Amino acid sequence: MKNNIPNVIPENLAVILIDMQDYFINHDEKRNLIPNQLLVLNFCRIKNIPVAVFEYRNRGETTAMLKKEIVKFSPENICTFIKRSDDAFSVEDFDGWLKEKNIQTLLLMGINACACVYDTANTAIKNGYKIMTSDTLITGYCNECKSEKKHVWYMENSVPVRESLFYFY
């Protein structure tokens, strides 16, 4: 990847949870992805790191396993957005929410890495944000895309996340 794996959580970080709705996620993704996302969400709640939750319109709510953690957040650190297209930045209030909180780095979690997460990441970079992610926090690329292009794009354009950062010592 473009940058070394960081040993500290960057300042001015927000976590973006994209389309983790039962409509989109299968059993294996629930088993493999959600525990890592819960770890990050728990850390964010305790450390007061803001989280934006995106739900694709007419596809249900965020899966109950994640929702149980999301409802524990204080209202100033959580915001749910409903989107009508793949790119989270298509939601008018989202960029303003980030700017209001002086966010500079986005940690992306969710599904589908070759569409919604990719489009959001691409626009984030164009808008001047740094992005971070991990293949243990996103899924749905390469096999579904039948292309290595987007996988390579993630490797070149994002800072990898070391999940151990989110454990407490």
Can you summarize this structure?
The protein is α/β, with parallel strands linked by helices and 169 residues long. The chain has helices spanning 27-32, 34-47, 64-70, 92-100, 116-126, 149-157, and strands at 13-18, 51-56, 78-83, 105-111, 130-133, 138-139, 159-160. It has one domain: 3-Layer(aba) Sandwich (Rossmann fold).
Q: State the end-to-end distance.
A: 27 Å
Please estimate the helix content.
25-40%
SSE run: EHHEHEHEHEEHE
Query: Would you identify the regions where 5 or more consecutive residues have pLDDT less than 50?
Result: 1-6
Rg, please?
15 Å
Tally of individual domains: 1
Describe this structure in words.
With 169 residues, the chain is an alpha/beta fold. The protein has a single domain (13-162), classed as Rossmann fold, CATH 3.40.50. 33% of the residues lie in helices and 20% in strands. It has 6 helices and 7 strands. Strands 1, 2, 3, 4, 5, 6 and 7 form a 7-stranded parallel beta sheet that branches. The longest helix has 14 residues, at 34-47. The chain is globular and about 35 Å long. The two termini are 27 Å apart.
